[in-house]
């Protein structure tokens, strides 16, 4: 059976794409399989684990709970879009410096949430950082390092280095 | 691809959306998708037709009208948190919205989706029950208004007729001096509530309660008011320990177990917070 496809225009990490997608294709599968951007990880595929979190027009969303067709006209940022000119995003560097990752599976989603948090309020408190991270499951129990990494970039706070 | 195949409709206007529903009454409306998409992914729900409401214009407003705050069904939960109007007039709804899911799910999840989904542990239906929000339901033949208490029929069961869409909810702005509070008991703040309680009280000149609304959720099919408890509160004066009063309140349709005990703790804390 040939499935109906829908034309979409979507910008991913600054690059425009015109694609035809089946309606039931998730944004996560489009990114991973269609565009080979495998930095966005899929864990639970029902919105609980947070690994697939990406930014849609700057606001975080679970890519497993969004259809690719819903990304039409939107600008998507994935973990691959954080690096600038070969240099890690300050949050990526901070996570490395503070041992904020071990296996790295949850890290791409964690990064997108923390990028959104720091964009919205440059000086989040530890409580706000922990509340934001509550939407992510890290089974290496690396939360403390993530909190310290985010605090190190929170204006005025976290000078534990 | 995880969901079973469906026909996809993404209309731009409400009349177009209603026309799709008229042609395909079995179509499932898709609002924020934070509950329906997981169900579709797991094939717990299959929908031959999916009616995506995310392209509709003008269904996400938050405005003051006729002593109410009128909120479009597609208003994102994150927008409730950011609304200065809600912070000023309905802080209890903001308090409740902050406990819904996580940042990423609130960015997509909507008020209307939550009110139609009617999960037993959901925060926004609890506030709608407390304030008996008035809902506007649109159909090709016209719109009707329905009180939330008639709309919420059970876990996941709403009173929408085939072909109808929830378009907005009106929450009454509390009278000046009203004391409202929302308390939830959960493993973590953003986990589904084990139990939650919301209260709205008005005090008379002598400091006694002259009107009371109590709503609870958790071990019930759907958020519900406690009319007997509300009557018991009349004439009560803040100050004395509310525990004996709360312990004596009947909790209909629930086993007298630890979940019921949590409901009473949430109620007591909500009363204390409203009176603080």
Mean pLDDT of chain A: 94
CATH 2nd-level architecture of the largest domain in chain B? 2-Layer Sandwich
Derived from helix and strand composition plus strand pairing, the structural class of chain B reads: alpha+beta
* Approximate strand percentage of chain B: 25-35%
Please bin the fraction of helical residues of chain A: 25-40%
The share of residues in helices of chain B is 25-40%
Shape category of chain B: globular
The number of helices of chain A is 5
Could you say what the CATH architecture of the largest domain in chain A is? Roll
Give the count of structural domains of chain B: 2
CATH fold category name of the largest domain in chain A:
Ubiquitin-like (UB roll)
Approximately how much beta-strand content do the residues of chain A carry?
Answer: 15-25%
Order of helices and strands of chain B: EHEHEEEHHHHHHEEHEEEEEEEHHH
Q: Alpha-carbon distance between the termini of chain B?
A: 52 Å
Integer average pLDDT of chain B: 95
Write out the strand line-up for the largest beta sheet of chain A, numbering strands in chain order.
2-1-5-3-4
Rg of Cα set of chain B: 19 Å
Under CATH, the topology of the largest domain in chain B is which? Answer: Uridine Diphospho-n-acetylenolpyruvylglucosamine Reductase, domain 3
Taking the sheet with the most strands of chain A, its summary is: 5 strands, mixed
Task: Describe the fold and architecture.
- The longest helix of chain A has 14 residues, at 107-120.
- By secondary structure, chain A is α+β, with helices and mostly antiparallel strands.
- Chain A has helices at residues 27-34, 90-97, 107-120, 126-133, 143-153, and strands at residues 5-12, 15-22, 53-56, 59-62, 75-77.
- Chain B is α+β, with helices and mostly antiparallel strands and 276 residues long.
- Chain B folds into two domains: 1-173, 2-Layer Sandwich (Uridine Diphospho-n-acetylenolpyruvylglucosamine Reductase, domain 3), CATH 3.30.465.10; 179-275, 2-Layer Sandwich (Enolase-like, domain 1).
- Chain B is built from twelve helices and 14 strands.
- In chain B, the strands form four sheets. A five-stranded antiparallel beta sheet of chain B has the order 4-5-10-6-7. A four-stranded antiparallel beta sheet of chain B has the order 11-12-13-14, sandwiched between helices. In chain B, strands 1-3-2 form a three-stranded parallel beta sheet, with helices on one face.
- Chain B starts with 6 loop residues before the first strand and ends with a helix.
- At the A-B interface, strand 4 and helix 3 of A face helix 2 and helix 6 of B.
């Amino acid at each position: 059976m040939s499935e109906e496809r829908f034309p979409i225009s979507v910008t991913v990490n600054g690059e425009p794409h015109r694609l035809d997608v089946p309606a039931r294709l998730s944004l996560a599968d489009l990114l991973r399989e269609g565009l080979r951007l495998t930095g966005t990880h899929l864990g639970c595929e029902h919105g609980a684990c947070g690994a697939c979190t990406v930014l849609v027009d700057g606001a975080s969303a679970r890519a497993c709970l969004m259809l690719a067709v819903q990304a039409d006209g939107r600008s998507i940022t994935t973990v691959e879009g954080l690096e600038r000119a070969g240099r890690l995003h300050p949050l990526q560097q901070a996570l490395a410096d503070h041992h904020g990752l071990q296996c790295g599976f949850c890290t791409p989603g964690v990064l997108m949430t923390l990028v959104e948090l720091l964009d919205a309020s440059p000086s989040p408190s530890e409580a706000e950082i922990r509340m934001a991270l509550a939407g992510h499951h890290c089974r290496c129990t690396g939360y403390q390092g993530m909190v310290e990494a985010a605090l190190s970039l929170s204006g005025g706070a976290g000078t534990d280095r | 691809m995880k969901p079973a195949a469906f026909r996809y409709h993404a209309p731009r206007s409400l009349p177009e959306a209603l026309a799709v529903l008229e042609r395909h009454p079995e179509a499932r409306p898709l609002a924020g998708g934070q509950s329906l998409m997981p169900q579709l992914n797991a094939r717990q729900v299959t929908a031959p037709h999916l009616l995506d409401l995310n392209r509709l214009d003008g269904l996400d407003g938050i405005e003051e009208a006729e002593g109410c705050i009128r909120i479009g069904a597609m208003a994102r939960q994150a927008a409730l948190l950011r609304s200065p109007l809600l912070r000023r007039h309905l802080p209890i709804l903001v308090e409740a919205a902050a406990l819904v899911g996580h940042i990423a799910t609130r960015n997509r999840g909507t008020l209307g989706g939550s009110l139609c989904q009617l999960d037993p542990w959901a925060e926004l239906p609890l506030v709608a029950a407390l304030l008996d929000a008035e809902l506007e339901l649109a159909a090709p033949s016209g719109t009707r208004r329905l009180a939330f208490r008639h709309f919420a029929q059970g876990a996941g069961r709403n009173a929408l007729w085939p072909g109808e869409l929830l378009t907005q909810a009106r929450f009454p702005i509390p009278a000046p001096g009203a004391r409202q509070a929302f308390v939830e008991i959960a493993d973590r703040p953003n986990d589904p509530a084990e139990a939650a309680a919301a209260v709205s009280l008005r005090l008379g000149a002598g400091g006694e309660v002259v009107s009371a609304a109590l709503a609870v959720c958790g071990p019930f099919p759907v958020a519900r008011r406690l009319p007997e408890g509300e009557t018991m509160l009349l004439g009560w004066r803040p100050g004395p320990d509310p525990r004996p009063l709360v312990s004596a309140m009947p909790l209909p349709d629930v086993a007298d177990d630890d979940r019921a005990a949590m409901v009473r703790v949430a109620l007591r804390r909500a009363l204390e917070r409203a009176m603080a």
